[in-house]
Amino acid sequence: MSRTPDAIASLGADRVSGAYTGHAVVVGGSMAGLLAARVLANHFEQVTLVERDALPDSAQTRKGVPQGHQLHVLLPRGRGIVERLFPGYGQELKTAGAVSVRLPTDTLILTPAGWLDRRATGWSLLSASRPLFEWALRRRLREVPGVTILDRHDVTSLLTSRDGRQVIGTTVRSLDDAGSGHRQLDAELVVDASGRGSRAPVWLSEGGYGTPRKTHVDPNVAYASRIYRIPEGFSADWQLVMLASQPPSIPRIGYLFPIEDGQWMVSLIGAAGQHPPTDEDGFAAFTRSLRHPVIADAVATAEPMSPIRGHRGTANRLWHYERMRCWPERFVVLGDAVCAFNPVYGQGMSTAALAADTLDTCLREQRRRRRADDLDGLARRFQRRLARRNAGPWMLSTGEDLRYPTTTGGRVTAVTRLQHRYLDRVVVATTQDPAIADAYTQVLGLLARPTSLFAPRVLAAAARARPNGERGPLNSAPPARPSVPAAS
Ligand SMILES: Cc1cc2nc3c(=O)[nH]c(=O)nc-3n(C[C@H](O)[C@H](O)[C@H](O)COP(=O)(O)OP(=O)(O)OC[C@H]3O[C@@H](n4cnc5c(N)ncnc54)[C@H](O)[C@@H]3O)c2cc1C
């Protein structure tokens, strides 16, 4: 495999001088694990990433990441971090067929209040299938010195020191050699990135550290997705469509995104138990029932390239590890294993990138404060800082989900109601004012905090905004693409 100059430059360039000698183990080889392993390679001599699945040499879905069949958006905040860790990642995605889209210029976004103003500056995204995002990262990680990927191995337990003060490694079991039993992987740091099914709560409680508390906010969302070939000669002034729900009365969402190989991925999403069917007729009827016919019309003549695949298990779930009284040194948890979101806001991969970035910062600070091999206090500091970084995306996701009266696990307070009313006004303003559409898309892209929507100019625009009246979206034509330079 040939390496690009960027790739070569990145190898070892960030390695912290006088880095920790020693070995770090990462549990789970999906987005969070791959990004964490890249960061750890700057700080440890050896890094072993352990993954249960066989990891393919191409962009394929796999059993351990069942959500890989559904639409995935990599938000600009996350992409920025990934680019820093793997320079040239975006170019590599483009070479593999990812489609560059300018949002909102090249998109139709139907907000609950009408069409988002397409004149906003917004941001650009690379649209691709989830397996492609992951495969491109994996390919790059394999080139990083000191990193070993151990696939078809299951991490079965944490190993701790006799006094229980610190984690000293894990046990792993080969899934190819049933008779080989469990073997020990010694490590100076263990990172759990094993996703929603993480066993960390069980390991911690069985190890005597206490039972972690969790918050669970469930808007009862399910997905159904299908890939289509884009019809030959298809032409429109948009590349991507997002038809939002209108809570609480219309809990249906439709996304159409271009992905590699001249294809569209269409994801239908239903909240409050109105789940999209996975049979042909039901899928077509749900597509037609969205708030605007643009997606149904586009796919009417498109050839399906995949079966319709459903997905449940999408609740917001947050483990409060930062609040635990007892925590073993040298053990950290990140990615969906700590904080998993209702995915309709597209935040999971980007918060996994933020977590890797946080780990990097904490390790660098640790080195400045202590001896090279002293990791005391790191794990706790990391979990606390991660909790703070996850707070904004969590607020955005659960705050919106509480608009459905059927959502379980969260509490609607007077403040929540006020926020909803205010955000309703802001969303109206995004349909009428490109500056406000811009402020809003910055928050959606995790480029600005949700609190930025309370800035004076947004407050003033929200106060001025008048609802779009009876002009229902079905009656209003989507806005035309403004004449601005095409996405690069
Ligand atoms: C329907 C759906 C749509 C989504 N859409 C988006 C989107 O648009 N944008 C976005 O950013 N995010 C999206 N997400 C979220 C995104 O998929 C995750 O946030 C992202 O994959 C990061 O997860 P992770 O790496 O922490 O865990 P996962 O992706 O769940 O991976 C965990 C890995 O750990 C492995 N593993 C588990 N246990 C063990 C063990 N004991 N030993 C070894 N290996 C183990 C698994 O095999 C797997 O590879 C979506 C999620 C869902 C469910």
What does this structure look like?
The protein is of the alpha+beta class and 488 residues long. The chain has a domain at 5-72 and 132-216 and 315-398: FAD/NAD(P)-binding domain (3-Layer(bba) Sandwich). The protein contains 13 helices and 21 strands. It has helices at 5-10, 31-40, 76-85, 89-95, 130-141, 200-206, 280-288, 294-299, 348-369, 378-401, 414-430, 434-444, 456-464; strands at 23-27, 46-50, 99-103, 107-111, 114-115, 123-127, 147-150, 153-160, 167-174, 182-186, 189-192, 214-217, 222-229, 240-243, 252-259, 263-270, 303-304, 309-311, 316-319, 331-333, 339-340. The strands form 5 sheets. Strands 4, 5, 13, 14, 15, 16, 17 and 18 form an 8-stranded mixed sheet that branches. The model is unreliable at 1-13 (pLDDT under 50). Bound molecules: flavin-adenine dinucleotide. Flavin-adenine dinucleotide binds at residues 27-33, 50-53, 64-65, 67, 70-73, 154-155, 193-197, 223, 311, 314, 335-337, 343, 346-350, 352. Flavin-adenine dinucleotide is lined by residues 27-33, 50-53, 64-65, 67, 70-73, 154-155, 193-197, 223, 311, 314, 335-337, 343, 346-350, 352.
